[in-house]
Write a structure and sequence with these properties.
Elements lengths: L1 E7 L6 H10 L7 E7 L8 H6 L3 E4 L8 H14 L3 E6 L5 H10 L4 E6 L10 H14 L2 E4 L2 H8 L1 H7 E3 L13 H10 L6 E6 L8 H14 L3 E6 L5 H10 L6 E3 L7 H6 L2 E4 L8 H8 L4 E4 L12 E4 L5 H14 L6 H7 L4 H22 L1
Parallel strand pairs: 1-2, 1-4, 2-3, 4-5, 5-6, 6-7, 8-9, 8-11, 9-10, 11-12, 12-13
């Protein structure tokens, strides 16, 4: 059996981790098993499911500058003690360099860098992340990405065009097909029967730009008193967003729904999906929302590769809030045939049943090739 070690933050219910679980559930686990290198010492919501499927979660000393030598030793020892792991697949953006370089030093033949974003957040590690980004190609053997723009950002256009591989952020499309009775039941439960529900799914952090989303919603609420904003997620900026909603007089119109194991029901309850992110690779939630047949509005900082449906569009982030509001309200008036969502996403190549088979074959081919070259 081939085991693939995925280096992640931790296996919480976030975009990258959910994408990995979508693939993991579809693997033939007699041929391929996933293990996870968690770089935060915090249990993840997916940990129990992983162990139930035969996977393992290894908790590292953490990607803290004070721990780098210890971290490198930990990863090298882990790989030497578990020779059945023959592929290391890093999802930590630039900081994935440390797992990949450790894997290289441990003699792992297949080392995949996987880009999921089109920008590096400017925090205290920013200069170090820029250095790691430059070093990443020397530590990896393969260059993967969720899409074109993220691949070019992390590896450069020449390397991406020559050897880049796009792994689609595929989903179980059937889970998101519109079921009117499910929609009505959830809307009744939350008192939304006669409301226009704008939805967003994403962690409360700088990247997702919830503050701007509230400004846009405030414009919509002026025109449409029955408008409601449903926010799914948790994060460090959640209280700040709640405070701003209160300051705008919108507390009774904004639903803070927290973290969810299954968001598919809420896509049913929504009437449109809005994502004014400051930057993105190719967001899983954007694919899910289109599978649910929702009109979708993304900022122009989200790659145009996300536009699968004719009901999806990008709006310049520097456009006025009123322009966003007018576009969203116009879509409400025009209406959308939501029944076409699953077919649109399948045709675009984002059905997990098809894509998981391709990934399984690719992993096996890569391992076999590396074995023959040894």
């Amino acid at each position: 059996m081939l085991r693939v070690l995925h280096s992640v933050s931790n296996m919480a219910r976030a975009g990258i981790e959910t994408m990995l679980m979508n693939y993991y559930r579809q693997m033939d686990r007699e041929q391929i098993q996933f293990d996870f290198l968690a770089n935060k010492p915090v249990p993840g919501e997916y940990d129990e499911e992983i162990r139930g499927m035969g996977g393992r979660v290894f908790v590292s000393p953490g990607l803290n500058p004070l721990h780098y030598p210890r971290y490198r030793r930990f990863v090298m020892d882990l790989l030497r003690d578990n020779p059945e792991i023959r592929i290391v697949h890093a999802h930590n953006e630039a900081m994935g360099y440390y797992a990949l370089q450790s894997a290289k030093d441990a003699g792992i033949p297949v080392r995949i860098a996987h880009a999921h974003n089109t920008r590096i957040i400017r925090d205290y590690k920013y200069p170090l992340k820029l250095l790691c980004k430059r070093l990443l190609p020397g530590a990896a053997t393969d260059y993967w990405s969720c899409g074109r723009d993220a691949g070019i950002y992390y590896y450069g256009q020449e390397r991406w065009q020559a050897s880049g591989f796009m792994l689609r952020n595929a989903i179980d499309v059937s889970k998101f097909a519109l079921l009117p009775e499910r929609r009505e039941r959830l809307r009744q439960l939350h008192g939304l029967e006669n409301c226009f529900v704008i939805g967003h799914v994403g962690r409360f952090n700088v990247q997702k730009n919830h503050s701007r989303l509230l400004d846009i919603f405030a414009q919509i609420a002026k025109e449409l008193p029955e408008a409601r904003l449903a926010l799914i997620g948790v994060g460090e900026l959640e209280q700040a967003v709640k405070d701003k909603a209160s300051g705008l007089g919108l507390s009774d119109r904004v639903l803070f729904l927290g973290q969810m194991g299954d968001v598919s029901g809420w896509y049913q309850a929504m009437d449109c999906f809005v994502m004014p992110s400051l930057f993105e690779g190719l967001p899983v939630v954007g694919i899910e929302a289109q599978a649910a047949g929702l009109p979708c509005f993304f900022s122009d900082r989200v790659t145009d590769e996300v536009l699968l449906s004719p009901a999806a569009r990008r709006i310049p982030l520097d456009a006025e809030d009123g322009e966003w509001a007018r576009a969203i309200l116009a879509a409400r008036q025009a209406g959308t045939d939501r029944s076409q969502g699953p077919a649109v996403v399948r045709r675009a190549g984002y059905d997990i049943h098809t894509e998981a088979r391709k990934l399984q074959e690719k992993y096996l081919e890569m391992a076999a090739r590396a074995g023959s070259e040894a």
